[in-house]
Amino acid sequence: MLTRKQKELFDYLNSYISKSGIAPSFDEIRKAINLKSKSGVHRLVTNLEQRGFIRRLKHKARAMEIIKNPLNLVSSKITNSNDEKNLSLIPLMGSIAAGNPIEAINNTYDNISVPSNLLSPQFKYFGLKIKGDSMIDDGIYDGDIAIIKQSQTINNGKIGAILIKDEEVTLKRVKYLDKKINLVPSNPNYKTKIYSSNDLKIQGELKGLIRSYN
């Protein structure tokens, strides 16, 4: 898991490098993510590199590579690739709340293309558009599309799409405690909500995100 500032830096680097082919300067990074000094930029960049999200190329100015994405993040630039052999279509089922729950999902609005290597042929998948900010510390933002692996069960501590009382759907981290199910946000402005197992139906587990860069 990345801190909020590390995630902000990663998103900026991912967008900048995908558009320009080179990394931004430290001064550009400092201004973009509102840091006071270049030493703060250096610390964040080093943290991302040590955790394997980026790689700095030695002896080259403004040279970085994106190695991996938190939560299998895929930019829309990749998912719109013309290389259809590496893409699979999954249904986009509407919206899901990363905040307060919204109405239950029951309609397919469209199909979206996702990289085939994010999907297993053993499972079915669907997409849901995120609304709200309760999961931002896990790098899940308003407007993202969540890639959900259909399942009626989920392991303790995983993030899933949860149907509440057959009426509302939300995206939260699931934790089992004392025969109750806790739906845990990753934003301190929201509170954990506790339910009995009879009140909830697991719709699937979060396997990745698609994000559009404007």
Question: How do you describe this structure in short?
Answer:
This protein has 214 residues and is of the alpha+beta class.
Largest sheet: 11 strands, mixed
Task: Give me the Rg, rounded.
Answer: 18 Å
Q: Helical stretch count? A: 4
- Poorly predicted regions are 78-83
The dominant shape is globular
The SS-based structural class is alpha+beta
Secondary-structure arrangement, i.e. CATH architecture of the largest domain: Ribbon
Task: Considering the chains and any ligands shown, give keywords for the structure.
globular; alpha+beta; Arc Repressor Mutant, subunit A; two-stranded antiparallel ribbon; eleven-stranded mixed sheet; 2 domains
Question: What does this protein look like?
Answer:
Strands 3, 4, 5, 6, 7, 8, 9, 10, 11, 12 and 13 form an eleven-stranded mixed beta sheet that branches. This protein is α+β, with helices and mostly antiparallel strands. The protein has helices at residues 4-20, 26-32, 38-50, 76-79; strands spanning 54-56, 64-66, 73-75, 87-97, 102-103, 110-115, 125-131, 145-150, 159-164, 168-177, 180-184, 193-196, 200-211. The chain is built from four helices and 13 strands. Helices cover 19% and strands 36% of the residues. A hairpin with a 2-residue loop joins strand 10 and strand 11. Helix 2 (26-32) crosses helix 3 (38-50). The protein has two domains: 4-68, Winged helix-like DNA-binding domain superfamily/Winged helix DNA-binding domain (Arc Repressor Mutant, subunit A), CATH 1.10.10.10; 77-211, Umud Fragment, subunit A (Ribbon), CATH 2.10.109.
